[in-house]
Amino acid sequence: MNHILEFNLEAGWVRVQPGLVLDQLNVYLKPYGVFFAPTVAPTNRATIGGMINTYGCGKGSIIYGRTSNHIIELEWVLADRTVTDSQSINQATLSQYKQDSGSLG
Ligand SMILES: Cc1cc2nc3c(=O)[nH]c(=O)nc-3n(C[C@H](O)[C@H](O)[C@H](O)COP(=O)(O)OP(=O)(O)OC[C@H]3O[C@@H](n4cnc5c(N)ncnc54)[C@H](O)[C@@H]3O)c2cc1C
């Protein structure tokens, strides 16, 4: 699970698998003059999945933002093996979801 699946320079996004290491992503992006902003340490070991899970930020976060500021969409698997997608939601929708007594809530 460490592959780069899709890259759209014009739109400014890249779709990756969660085991991709931060340095590997930035080596790939460098020729295009862009980088994945969060500079957590250690960059040669931290995976994108681990950075998302630990809410990673790093020394450039005041300028560039932390990992969560750069996630457009996630595909994830729940403990009951449900595969689902998540995208940014507003506070009102979050409040609705919190009322759900199932795994979504
Ligand atoms: C020496 C050192 C310096 C650091 N400095 C900084 C810093 O300056 N700024 C900063 O923000 N952070 C820092 N960190 C924390 C660092 O950001 C995290 O340790 C790192 O991002 C986690 O990535 P990892 O691949 O090592 O994850 P792991 O440690 O392997 O995993 C972290 C957590 O995420 C879970 N996880 C991993 N992948 C997935 C997945 N695909 N799906 C679900 N859960 C998953 C794991 O089960 C675990 O609970 C530092 C860590 C170290 C060791």
Written account of the structure:
This protein is an alpha+beta fold and 105 residues long. The chain folds into two domains: 1-72, Uridine Diphospho-n-acetylenolpyruvylglucosamine Reductase, domain 3 (2-Layer Sandwich), CATH 3.30.465.10; 73-105, no CATH class. It is 25% helix and 18% strand. The protein has helices at residues 22-29, 48-53, 61-64, 91-98, and strands at residues 4-8, 13-16, 73-77, 83-87. A two-stranded antiparallel sheet has the order 1-2. A hairpin with a 5-residue loop joins strand 3 (73-77) and strand 4. It is globular. It starts with a strand and ends in a 7-residue tail after the last helix. The mean pLDDT is 93. It binds flavin-adenine dinucleotide. Flavin-adenine dinucleotide is lined by residues 18, 40-42, 45-47, 49-51, 53-54, 56-58.
List the SSEs and their pairings:
Elements: E1 4-8, E2 13-16, H1 22-29, H2 48-53, H3 61-64, E3 73-77, E4 83-87, H4 91-98
Antiparallel strand pairs: 1-2, 3-4
The structure holds flavin-adenine dinucleotide.
